[in-house]
Amino acid sequence: MIRWLNLLAIAALVGSAAYAYSIKYETARYSAEIVKMQHAIQREKDAIGMLKADYAWLSRPGRVQQLADRHLDLQNFSIDQIAKPGDLPDRAPRVDAIGRKLEALGLTDITTPRDERAGPARSSTPVTPR
């Protein structure tokens, strides 16, 4: 009986040692992956920085002005091109076109938003369930 307990204790000791080593190597593998990911993130940040610098270089106002002068046929700006707020047209009324079409087909009995001058938006045909 004591031999079986000794063998069982030795097996448990060897099993726990193997489990501890497997955890150790798995942890080392994960930390190597983390370092690789941190380097990849840093490379991407560097690439983003380079792209921002390229964009800033290409979108300089002087360069854009030279390109506009060379490739676009623009006229000089005059003061009579400025519009006053009173010169702008009124905003169009908000209309629910899909709801109006459904009402015209008699598929709904719900009112839709429409211009106050147009009157009520109720349908005269009742809704029948299918």
What would you note in describing this structure?
Helices cover 59% and strands 0% of the residues. By secondary structure, the protein is an all-alpha fold. The protein has a domain at 2-45. The chain is elongated.
Quick summary:
The chain is an all-alpha fold and 130 residues long. 59% of the residues lie in helices and 0% in strands.
Key terms for this structure?
130 residues, 3 helices
Name the shape in a single word: elongated
**What's the story with the biggest beta sheet?**
none
The topology string of helices and strands comes to HHH
Number of helices: 3
Strands, total number? 0
Average pLDDT rating: 84
List low-confidence stretches: none
Termini separation comes to 81 Å
What Rg do the Cα atoms give?
38 Å
Helix content: 55-70%
Beta-strand residue percentage: under 5%
Structural class: mainly alpha
Fold topology:
Blueprint: H1 2-58, H2 61-71, H3 97-105
